Amino acid sequence: MKKILIALPGIAIAAALFFLIIPNDESPDIQALTDAMLEKKDARLTRLESVEDEALRKPLLNLVYDAMFTDGMELDFQAPPRNTAYTTARLTRLNDYSSIDELTEVFLANQIAATTYRDRSCVWPREPFTYPFHHRLTWTAIRLDNGEATELPNHFSGSSYNAEIEYSGARNTFCYRDPLGPDQPVPVALVGEFSVQLPQKLIQFDFSRSDIDQSQSKDGYTVTLVEANDFSYAIEVSSSNGELPSLGSKDIIGEALDETGKYLAHTGTRTGRSELYEASDVIVDDLIDRAVEGTLTEAQIDQRFDEMQNELNEKYGNRLHKHFFFSGSVKTARITLLDKEAKQTPFKQRLDLPIRNLARRQPAPSVDLDTLERIPTLLPVYDHSIQNKVELNADEMKTAIDIRQNEISTDLQYSALVTLYYPRVQSDRFLGIFDRYQKPGADDIVFLNAEGTAIDLPSDDPDYYRFMVSRIEYNPGRFPEKPVRLSATVPVVTTPNLTKKSHRRNNLPDGVRIVDNMIIIDRAVFKPASNNEPSEKTHLFFAKSADQRYLSKVTDLHFPRTEGPGVDVTYYNGLPEIFEVWHRGDTKTVEYQVDLNLEEPAPRE
Fold first, then answer.
1. What percentage of residues in the chain have a pLDDT greater than 90?
2. Could you count the other beta carbons within 10 Å of the beta carbon of residue 537?
3. Helices (H) and strands (E) in the chain, counts
4. 367 band by pLDDT with thresholds 50, 70 and 90
5. Cβ–Cβ < 8 Å for 323, 270
6. Where in 219-310 does DSSP place strands (E)?
7. Torsion-angle region of residue 511: left (phi > 0), alpha (psi -120 to 50) or beta?
8. Residue 255 burial by CB count (10 A; 0-12/13-18/19+): exposed, middle or buried?
9. What is the top-level taxon of the source organism (predicted)?
């Protein structure tokens, strides 16, 4: 039987049902809608109990559960996210290169295969960055030094294996199931193929959330914003010639920006107009009625859905419809169409990657730099993560620190929380989330009642509230009075004295060498000055290209000596021309003031 209804993946169902039990004052009554959905499912199952024909009852049971999953998807569209999360623009890598072809060339040229096993019994492929277009990168074999090849299992699932190789999706590794003996052929290369249909043109459309039913036309396509709410939107795409646009599902990219201009993390996509689901739902009830009456045959089930599909195709068959969901408040809906030629031949390239030996080295009296493993990834790949502000001062914190309340927490002891989100800054490389905030003093966290008076709470009793890492957790149900406002002073650790010093290739410090795409640091010679504790991270090293752009790192190797410090080797995607040293300097603590009205925590079940 045809699967007309679209089933919601298990993880999405769980997420949807989780949201459904934590309603929000500005959202519809999700719990009531959930109860109605489950009641409808139970009623349908009860009616089907009277259908004795097993061949008829089984497909109808499947339709009932499919319909429930579809209802869950619709509730997902209505349930707002509890957490805001950001991402980078899907096509941001295109800004680094002159064309899509050049981006593809860099992506392929910087592929590597490596092993950390001395016998090379496990091999992992590494991509230099996330390729932004739908593609297929298939690894087919491990080539041996005797010219033979070991066939690899299908690796497009979590884990798989064949007679000789096991693939782990979690670690992205291909491992021989039996250890390789010293007399066996040695793995020397990973063989595969890359395939993609490259777009000829990228066509971008921007809508504000209020542009519902508005259309924009460019380059033969028309995009209409048909639905929008605070955290999602739906669009339709049509062609100027009236025919169905020749776009695949992956050729329509939906993104969202919030009021700060940052890209919101994408949480899901749904294809097809809501009429499809509404019509399917009506049909399910009608088919059950006919089955109970004894007037339905199994063949008529598919026939009825075919009729519905034909009706919808007649009405919407020349348009593509997509819903996009995001983890935050959408201000701008950004749609990018990947325009391709009809019947376009895919671009394909065979890959044969030498397996690089990155196994941990044993201590030796000296390090022979001439025997270093070469990983010749010479085309530049840039590190975008460094392009942030260096640090915040006290005034900037007032607007830059994001305060959110009552996000999802697994800790049931405290029903409410206030979380402080420090924006991404370069000093994060020295100060992790566990170091950024210090614990406030006993008198620095004050809860106030409706009259604005401080609520008297034992300062040494954690049952009322506590400070954890970056959040104040509290349980208003234990308070003698209802807390309506919070006043707190939180010490924030900063690095106002962070400095950077650059050294060009022809003027490097003693103990530092640049060889091809490697920066080699002899720790016995190069010792950045520091007055801090040895356990603290006080300095970092980076590589820049000739045009002053940070290069992304491939990997690190350490060569220990039997006596004294060893040698560090860092490989980069590109040719380093500048060796840059960051010194953290002394830290400074800033007193950050929190003063806000408290939101009602969501009820827990």
1. 58
2. 12
3. 8, 33
4. confident
5. yes
6. 221-228, 232-239, 252-257, 263-264, 266-271
7. left
8. buried
9. Bacteria
Q: Could you read off the pLDDT of 95-148 as tens digits, one per residue?
A: 999 999 999 999 999 999 999 998 899 999 999 999 999 999 999 999 999 999
Is it the case that residue 18 has pLDDT exceeding 50?
A: no
Map tokens 């969901």 to a residue: 325
Q: Which residue has the higher pLDDT, 458 or 39?
A: 39
Using the predicted structure, report yes or no on whether residue 29 has a pLDDT greater than 80. Answer: no
pTM, two decimals, is 0.82
Q: What angle do CA 378, 384, 389 make, to 5 degrees?
A: 140
Q: Are strands 215-218 and 485-494 parallel, antiparallel or unpaired?
A: unpaired
Cα–Cα nearest to 498, from 445, 463, 440, 542: 542
Q: How confident is the model at residue 410 (pLDDT cuts 50, 70, 90)?
A: low
- The two tokens of residue 582 are 């960051």
HSE-up (13 A, CA, CB side) for residue 179? 5
Angle between helix 54-78 and 274-293 (nearest 10): 150
Phi-psi region of 283 (alpha: psi -120 to 50; beta: other; left: phi over 0): alpha
| H or E segment to which residue 492 belongs | strand 485-494
Of 53-62, 297-306, 505-514, highest mean pLDDT: 505-514
User: What per-residue confidence (pLDDT) applies to 600?
Assistant: 84
Residue 287 near residue 230, CB atoms below 8 Å: no
- The rounded radius of gyration (Å) of the Cα atoms in the chain is 30
Beta bridge partners of 471: 419, 468
**Helix orientation angle between 54-78 and 30-48, rounded to the nearest 10 degrees:** 180
pLDDT of 602 higher than 80? no
Tell me what pLDDT residue 429 has. 93
Position of tokens 């693939």? 167
Residues with Cβ within 8 Å of 245's Cβ and at least 6 positions away in sequence, in order, are 221, 237, 238, 239, 319, 320
Q: What is the residue-wise DSSP string for 6-44?
A: PPPPHHHHHHHHHHHTS--TTS--HHHHHHHHHHHHHHH
The DSSP element (H or E) to which 105 belongs, if any, is helix 100-109
Q: What is the 3-state secondary structure (H, E, C) of 161-188?
A: ECCCEEEECCCCEEEECCCCCCCCCCEE
| Alpha helix positions (H), 408-541 | 433-436
Burial status of residue 177 (CB atoms within 10 A of its CB: 0-12, 13-18, 19 or more): exposed
- pLDDT of 289-347, one tens digit each? 888 888 888 888 888 878 877 777 776 668 899 999 999 999 999 999 999 887 788 99
Tokens of 429: 């490389």
Closest by CA to 354, choosing from 191, 165, 154, 180, is 191
Name all contacts of 528-534 with Cβ < 8 Å and 24+ positions apart. 528/581, 528/583, 530/583, 532/584
- pLDDT 10s digits, 213-236: 999 999 999 999 999 989 999 999
Task: Please give the Cα distance from 159 to 170 (Å, whole number).
Answer: 8
Q: At what angle do helices 54-78 and 10-20 cross, to 10 degrees?
A: 60
pLDDT band at 153 (very low <50, low <70, confident <90, very high): very high
Residue 249 confidence (pLDDT): 85
**DSSP3 helix / strand / coil % (the chain, rounded to 5):** 25, 35, 45
d(CA 130, CA 120): 26
